[in-house]
Amino acid sequence: MTEATSATPAPDALADVLADAPFARLVATDDGDALAAAGLLARALRAVGTPFQVRVAADPVPDDADDGVSVTVGAARGPRAISGAGRPASTDAFAVSRALGVEPDPVVALAGVVAAGSVPGTDGSADALDAAEDSDRVRRRPGVAIPTADLADGLAASTLVRTPYSGDPEAARAALAELGIPADLGDEAHRRLASLVAVDVADADEASARAASAVERALRPYATTGDATPFETVGGYADALDALAREAPGTGVALALDTDPSADLRTAALGAWRSHGLAAHRALDAATTSRYDGCVVVRVELPEGEGDGPEDGDTAPDAGAVLPTIARLARDFRSPEPVAIAVDESAGRLAAAAVGGGRAADDAATEPLGLGDACRSVATEFDGDGWGTAERGGLAVGAGEKGGEAETDGDVTGALAALREAL
To answer: What are the start and end residues of every segment in region (Disordered) (predicted)?
Structure first.
């Protein structure tokens, strides 16, 4: 199955179908943009009284819908899809919600836009930004986009940046102390913080030329206002959604659906985001990196068993959840090539991320490489599973399920070589 089998319908057309549906099944790809888009659609369906179901999958296939309508979000699959190709899926979901007569949450939409690698106000998100600003839901300010009020916590776990103190809250705390950042931040302190992060990203060991541009989407964030917004900034919200889509999809769906998340839900969401981000950065710190023509490969070994996770006593990180984030971080901040591949040989898995589609910094003219199809093709040669979209993909050998534990009797090293050849 390839990644392009249907086109995104016009908002009015999809809204008409959903309005008349006895039941709607939404299946989203495991990324923050698709999760936000599915949340917007589900909220709209709830508002108009249409029963629905939402699930997240690495390679979504629409369910048979004899008793309703299926919509794929984040991939062009099935007769009805919001593909996210060309512009964030969240912008189309925002438009569909309005076509249903529902005023969607613009902050969720903007979080999806940032998660897609875009900038609020661009790629079709001007209406969402206008709605957020007109309702005083967001305010542009200097600084860095993180989800928490605790700066050290946010900087250490954020996957929007890659600094020398990423993955290390104590090192982040020391960097902030050296700069003399006060607890009560004004605009001047936020500017100093942004300068620190921008310089540290660009000057970090092994930083690529792309890193200086990639960090820009984490700077000058839109701060959120109001008690119902679960995170401090739109960019921080995006970072959390992206982590939740892979690390804890049930929590992610609950968060995207909830108009006023409880303290427990916020705590669970932040916990999953924190564990995910710290695990990704720490794995990248210990990675072995090789450069080839057209791609960079980072070989990691995620810890196994209890007590070896990001924090003492945590469950060890799941390779299927963390490898895509490692690949994206490597692509944006380490790789001089257009593709980065993260491999965990002990888990029999790899994940790949490519620039393209006009979203990655300094690569607006680069065409996506069709990573998802390449991973699917290679997987068939190695009795494995492959999945993904044009700009990212994954592969597991000897694994019965894309989301399950991988057996290690497959040859992920051979699959990696074949994927490099395919690219």
So the answer is: 393-412
The angle, 0 to 180 degrees and rounded to 10, between the axes of the packed helices 32-48 and 89-99 is 10
Q: What is the distance between the alpha carbons of residues 277 and 403, in angstroms, rounded to a whole number? A: 19
How long a stretch of residues is the chain? 423
Characterise 218 by phi-psi region: left (phi > 0), alpha (psi -120 to 50), beta (else): alpha
**Cα separation, 282 vs 168, whole angstroms:** 8
Which residues are 233's β-sheet partners?
A: 223
Domain boundary among 239, 271, 303: 271
Bridge partner residues of 73 (DSSP) = 28, 82
Identify the H or E element spanning 187.
Answer: helix 187-203
Q: Find the helix or strand (DSSP H, E) in which 397 lies.
A: strand 392-397
Q: Taken in order 395, 399, 401, 405, is the CA torsion positive or negative? A: negative
Output the pTM of the full model: 0.91
Instruction: Specify burial of residue 352 (Cβ count, 10 A radius: 0-12, 13-18, 19+).
Output: buried
- Domain assignment present for 192: no
What digits encode the pLDDT tens for the residues 138-175?
A: 999 999 999 999 999 999 999 999 999 999 999 999 99
Backbone angles phi, psi at 11, to 5 degrees: -55, -45
The owner of tokens 């959903």 is 18
Report residue 11 as tokens. Answer: 């908002």
DSSP state of 2: -
| Strand boundaries in 47-167, DSSP class E | 52-57, 69-73, 81-82, 138-140
Are 160 and 199 contacting, i.e. CB atoms less than 8 angstroms apart? no
- What CATH number corresponds to the domain at position 235? 3.90.1640.30
pLDDT in tens, 327-341: 999 999 999 999 999
